[in-house]
Amino acid sequence: LAGNIVRGRAEPIRAVVWFSDLVGFTRISDTASAGTVLELLNDYAEAQVEEIEAHGGHVLKFIGDGILAIFPQEDTAQACTRALDAAAKLGDRIAALNVRRAAHGMPVTSTHIALHVGELLYGNLGSSRRLDFTVLGSAVNEAARMESFCASLERAVIVSTAFAEASGHARRRLVSVGRYAMKG
Predict the structure, then answer these.
(1) Beta bridge partners of 124
(2) Which of 65 and 6 is assigned the larger pLDDT?
(3) What span, in angstroms and rounded, lies between the C-alpha atoms of 38 and 165?
(4) Considering only CA atoms, which of 93, 6, 29 is closest in space to residue 55?
(5) How many Cβ atoms from other residues are within 10 Å of residue 30's Cβ?
(6) What is the pLDDT of residues 159-171, one digit of tens each?
(7) pLDDT tens-digit profile of 112-128?
(8) Which residues contact 117 (CB under 8 A, 6 or more apart)?
(9) Under a CB-based contact definition with an 8 Å cutoff, are residues 44 and 97 in contact?
(10) pLDDT of 181 strictly over 60
């Protein structure tokens, strides 16, 4: 928003929402030292952030072991393609990271990623003493809820119907896993 830091000011945008979470993080954090957990979080966050940014996305928030990012673009099909490319490259990158970490006896994990597209409010919210630059809207909530289906569907990446319909030529890369109702 060109440096706009006024509380309560937000711009409506259409974007791809990326919501990811580390697989088995609670189990790892229950058994590993604080230093080991912090190093794990940093390693996997670095991999995700670099792939998201390399493909035109913007990381907005770290939520524990999760990441909220967006791929804003005038051409929604192109934003979908970039998000899918980032997710695919991330899978390769995490495989290499896991080989390195396992060779040093460090815990390894992977990510679950949900991709959705929708209308968002992009801006600042909070109190007069603490602002948070973020995105708001039902598309964010839906992406977060979708991510929880990755484990039961045994998929590292899932996308919404809205994403599939907006993805243009990238749609041929997608496989239907059925229809599922989300909470709320």
Answers:
(1) 133
(2) 65
(3) 38
(4) 93
(5) 8
(6) 999 999 999 999 9
(7) 999 999 999 988 888 88
(8) 14, 15, 16, 17, 76, 79, 80, 139, 160, 162, 163, 166
(9) yes
(10) yes
- Contact indicator for 80, 163 with CB cutoff of 8 Å: yes
Q: What is the arithmetic mean of pLDDT over 77-90?
A: 97
Judge whether 144 and 114 are in contact, CB under 8 Å.
Answer: yes
What's the CA gap between 123 and 114, in Å, rounded?
A: 22
How would you write the chain as a 3-class SS string? CCCCCCCCCEEEEEEEEEEEEECCHHHHHHHCCHHHHHHHHHHHHHHHHHHHHHCCCEEEEEECCEEEEEEECCCHHHHHHHHHHHHHHHHHHHHHHHHHHHHCCCCCCCEEEEEEEEEEEEEEEECCCCEEEEEECHHHHHHHHHHCHHHHHCCCEEECHHHHHHCHHHHHHCCCCCCCCCCC
CA distance 57 to 70: 6
CA–CA distance, 48 with 54 (Å, rounded to integer) = 10
